[in-house]
Design brief:
Strand order of the largest sheet: 1-8-2-3-7-4-6-5-9-10-11
CATH superfamily of the largest domain: DHBP synthase
Number of strands: 16
Structural class: alpha/beta
Largest sheet: 11 strands, mixed
CATH architecture of the largest domain: Alpha-Beta Complex
Bound molecules: adenosine monophosphate, magnesium ion
Order of helices and strands: EHEEHEHHEEHEHEEEHEEHEEHEHE
CATH class of the largest domain: Alpha Beta
Strand content: 15-25%
Radius of gyration: 20 Å
Shape: globular
Oligomer: single chain
């Protein structure tokens, strides 16, 4: 299949942009696939209410079909049709965080096919704030099922280049909307249990959810460094976000981490490896290796969230085969960063 790539700037949705979005919407209505930008990561979209579209998404990604898809909507009026009964908590959270990087799990209605929910009676729903995404959802009829637009297991794309790398020839269209703003997938909160439970950490933190709902729990498996526990979101059990090389996270005092990584990097280089280091603006000058990249600054960890997946992909581009990363604080957005980094590293951590 020939994949058409169109560029649209989120800030300039003019006539010609709307024309392309209309064309993309028609592809989706006809059962085809379109990759598009959201504020979290790029999504691989299909019509959420068409069972055949979901099957195509699983095939294009190479994703196991028990791993449910998130349904994206653009308007609150569209919620009722896909949910059995909208819980009070969903209304409160939507008021606070939609459109935005929060996915809510509710009991599904009959309108949502089981192929979209991986056989579950619940459905995950999000309303993205990215304007291209919102227009596309409307043009497609209101409901787009979209996982991240990467081949299963690889880091999620935060720029169109990596969507094209993974999906060229497998989807009808890719909309290039530049680099995304957040860079990590949405926070997922399950509203079918009491109290509500976070199944995947993201930009919307537990503290932020706590301010709206009385009490929110967190699925321990996503923060404990124990890969044997079974997470409640089916997709969280899979190896994920992995670069091609071997990544190790080093935890401890900043000075010690620096010395240790430099020693290990020199030893690996001496053995003929190409070595990469993931660090921060605060420490970048202290490292030496083939490729040293700062993910951002610790003063504002959202800068790190935004760059992390891109850096992992760039290490692949540069054929780095051994990587070391500093570790990050496990609170606020740091929790989401560490959750993704631990998976990318296959839970390979050295504590100093
Ligand atoms: P992705 O589409 O790559 O962002 O992944 C979607 C994530 O949402 C996966 O981890 C899924 O397992 C999770 N998810 C989607 N729907 C549900 C659901 N109904 N219940 C629990 N987790 C879900
Ligand atoms: Mg994904």
């Amino acid at each position: 299949m020939e994949t058409k790539v169109v560029k649209i700037e989120e800030q300039i949705i003019d006539e010609s942009a709307l024309e392309s979005i209309k064309e993309a919407g028609q592809i989706l209505k006809d059962g085809g696939l379109v990759a598009f930008p959201t504020e979290t990561v790029y999504g691989l979209g299909g019509d959420a209410l068409n069972p055949e579209s979901s099957k195509k998404i699983y095939a294009a990604k190479g994703r196991p079909s028990d791993n449910p898809l998130i349904v994206h909507i653009a308007d609150m009026e569209h919620l009722d049709k896909i949910v059995d009964k909208v819980p009070e908590s969903a209304i409160k959270l939507a008021k606070a965080f939609w459109p935005g990087p929060l996915t809510m799990i509710m009991n599904k209605s009959d309108a949502v096919p089981y192929t979209t929910t991986g056989g579950l009676d619940t459905v995950a729903i999000r309303m993205p704030s990215n304007k291209i995404a919102a227009e596309l959802i409307r043009a497609a009829g209101g409901y787009i099922a979209a996982p991240s637009a990467n081949v299963s297991g690889r880091p999620s794309p935060t720029v169109a280049k990596y969507c094209i790398e993974d999906l060229d020839g497998k989807v009808e269209m890719i909309i290039d909307g530049g680099q995304v703003g957040i860079g990590l997938e949405s926070t997922i909160v399950d509203l079918t249990v009491e109290p509500a439970m976070i199944l995947r950490p993201g930009y919307i933190t537990r503290q932020m959810l706590d301010e709206v709902l009385e009490q929110v729990e967190i699925d321990r498996t996503i923060i404990d460094n124990n890969s044997n526990l079974k997470p409640k979101a089916p997709g969280m059990k899979y190896r994920h976000y992995a670069p091609k090389g071997q990544l190790t996270i080093i935890e401890g005092d900043s000075d010690k981490v620096c010395d240790y990584i430099n020693e290990q990097a020199a030893a690996a280089k001496a053995q003929g490896h190409k070595v990469g280091i993931i660090c921060t603006d605060e420490t970048i000058s202290a490292y030496s290796a083939d490729v040293v990249k700062s993910a951002g600054n610790r003063e504002d960890e959202s800068t790190i969230a935004r760059e992390l997946f891109k850096i992992l992909r760039e290490f692949d581009d540069e054929k780095v085969d051994i990587m070391y990363s500093e570790s990050f604080d496990d609170n606020g957005i740091g929790q989401a960063i560490m959750n993704r980094l631990l998976k990318a590293a296959g839970h390979n951590v050295i504590k100093l």
